[in-house]
Write a structure and sequence with these properties.
The chain is an alpha/beta fold. It contains 12 helices and 17 strands.
Amino acid sequence: MEEVGILIVGGGIAGLATSLALHRKGIKSVVLERAEQVRSEGAGIGTLTNGWRALDQLGVGHRLRLTSLLIHKARTMLIENGKTQEFVLTIADEARCIKRNDLVEALADALPQGTIRFGSQIVSINEDQTTSFPVVQLSNGKTIKAKILIGCDGANSVVSDYLQLGPRKAFSCRAVRGFTNYPNGHGFPQELLRIKKGNILVGRLPLTENQVFWFLVHMQDNHYKVEDQESIANLCLKWVDEMSQEWKEMVKICNVESLSLTHLRYRAPSEIMLGKFRRGTVTVAGDAMHVMGPFLGQGGSAALEDAVVLARCLARKVGPDQGDLLKDCSMRSIEEGIDEYVKERRMRLLGLSVQTYLTGRSLQTPSKVVRLMFIVLLVLLFGRDQIRHTKYDCGRL
């Protein structure tokens, strides 16, 4: 049986960011990633001021700014019965859209060689009968015992199941994300544009002068049948059939290989408020902890915040001088560090999950009365500054 100090499950944004944050604090970790290389799903990550603050703490913000345009405003249009309502929000702070590929590569490149172990999928987690530390069984038959286990393995997390967190819930909507390249330039303004028409929500964000990230959300389509990338492309063309020619053209000429279809899921706000995010020396971060809908664009940034806070809290208890196996670090001190992390993150994540849930429901409902109810709740809970969540500072490493 192999023994390690800190084992991180999942080599996505949360896992790599957490490993890098620990590395910046002088603490070594091992990342298990089931894929054979750094995953490169076609997606853009809307990254707001709070996310950039975390990226700067991780030391990769400067690299990512080189390939992403500033977003100056957010524009939302609601089209109903031939009438259009438009809401414009000026963004004074930093907001950009970055490729998920660019983000995970920047994080991975900043880690020491050998940190990530590819082709490593866990199948079970048990507790060592002698030490009470977690023991992970891999699909290849290998067993790893860790002083600290951090689950960053996404919405379908094995680690969150071990913590006995409640099941993720599903929105009734599906989303497709993709990229479109314009060799001669797209000419779109540097803004987030969202248009809601009937059951379709479309959105667009420029990454560079020649590339656009876009998404489509169908609020009620539960009967799709998708077999390959071409099927997803055809589904998108069907969804934008009543949109303008500009949107149809963007979907028609998109990079088909970049398309990804997702059933949107979330962890209920009540679970965020009451869920037990530590069991012994096991905890979670990123989507494994707080998967949420995309309606605030905070999923990626929240995961980056998790990484900074978790590394800071553990470093106070573990310290950089404990060695790779953390031999002189007691279970109690580790548990105290994780508890500090959970306490600091819980209320922040509760606010994000409630605001995301209410925003998503307001967009989904066909009833003006119900939509107004959700909007009133949003104002009562979060005030008139509905982007206050973007100004959050997770602090220094």
